[in-house]
From TrEMBL:
It comes from Buttiauxella ferragutiae ATCC 51602. This is Integral membrane protein. The lineage of its organism: Bacteria, Pseudomonadati, Pseudomonadota, Gammaproteobacteria, Enterobacterales. Gene3D superfamilies: ABC transporter type 1, transmembrane domain. It is a multi-pass membrane protein. It comes from the Bacteria. The chain crosses the membrane at residues 31-59, 65-83, 135-153, 159-177, 226-249. It is found in: Cell membrane.
Length: 298
């Protein structure tokens, strides 16, 4: 499509979800291949603790051939991961190249300053980053959390129930947490849109105030993320303590079972640990979506 045709078809495209949908529609084939690799990687990842448990029991019984199947699972997981990473750069570099021009043209049409346009082109990169980094992470985290809970409910029921209780507890705080993050990103992005202009004419005092303000907002965002990690750490410690006590009281003597339970617990905790950064990214994208007209064609 020529530049003239693109310009003629430009339509306001505000809203993070709307922009993400349009990007997904425009690049559906590339994204499907990439996301299928993510799904395949996660399926193998979910089987990993169970296969490791079988391997441990096989080693104890002297069944080396059965135990070696674990090595095959490890190889498959890494091979899929390598293929996905190779695809990622090719796919998302091209998607951003196709996004930057419509964003610039749309901001020009809306008669924004050069400073605002430069900032918004940079901000628009976050939509591509979502597909490249955060959507795979989101899929991995959700698959790991759900998969770990299901497996724990199957092999160590009350540990699985405890994990579900923790999920419900944190879900209660999501709305207020994301709203506050969005407010902070609004302040941050308002300043970033003025940054190019400040560089050109602002006094030393104004520049100091500008960058100190940016630092303060980023510190507040970082502190909120850190508090989230701490809360998850406390919950994880509780889960591990409870599970260890349960298995000790039950007198579980199967080494493979113990390993599988502890690994699924760790998988749950580590995936939950991705929550604060994913919520921060969600708030950031939502705020960017309100201000950036990407000019994407329906």
């Amino acid at each position: 499509m020529s530049t003239c045709q693109q310009t003629a078809q430009l339509k306001p495209s505000r809203g993070a979800l709307n922009t993400l949908k349009k990007l997904a529609k425009l690049h559906s084939k590339k994204l499907i291949v990439t996301l299928l690799l993510v799904v395949a990687e996660n399926v193998v990842y979910l089987l990993y603790p169970l296969m490791a448990g079988f391997a441990i029991n096989a080693i104890i019984k002297g069944q080396s051939l059965h135990a070696l199947l674990y090595a095959l699972v490890v190889f498959i997981m890494w091979a899929i991961g390598a293929a996905r990473r190779s695809m990622d750069t090719r796919t998302f570099a091209r998607i951003y190249a196709g996004l930057a021009v419509p964003v610039i043209l749309a901001q020009r049409k809306d008669d924004h300053s050069h400073s605002t346009i430069a900032a918004r082109v940079t901000l628009s990169r976050e939509f591509v980053n979502f597909f490249e980094t955060h959507l795979p992470l989101l899929i991995t985290s959700l698959a790991s959390i759900i998969g770990a809970v299901v497996m724990l409910l199957t092999i160590e029921f009350w540990a699985g129930v405890a994990c579900m209780v923790v999920l419900v507890f944190f879900a209660l705080f999501l709305p207020s947490y994301t709203r506050k993050n969005e407010m902070l990103y609004e302040k941050l992005n308002d300043r970033l849109e003025k940054e190019v202009g400040f560089v050109g004419y602002a006094s030393e005092n104004t520049l100091n105030k500008h960058y100190n303000f940016l630092a303060q907002v980023r510190i507040r965002l970082s502190d909120r993320e850190a508090y989230g990690y701490l809360a998850i750490g406390i919950a994880a410690a509780f889960l591990f303590a409870m599970t260890i006590m349960l298995m000790t009281v039950k007198g579980v003597g199967n080494a493979g079972h113990i390993y599988s339970v502890m690994t699924y617990m760790w998988m749950f905790a580590m995936s939950l640990d991705d929550g604060p950064s994913l919520l921060e990214k969600y708030s950031q994208l939502k705020e960017i979506g309100k201000r950036v007209n990407t000019g994407l064609v329906d």
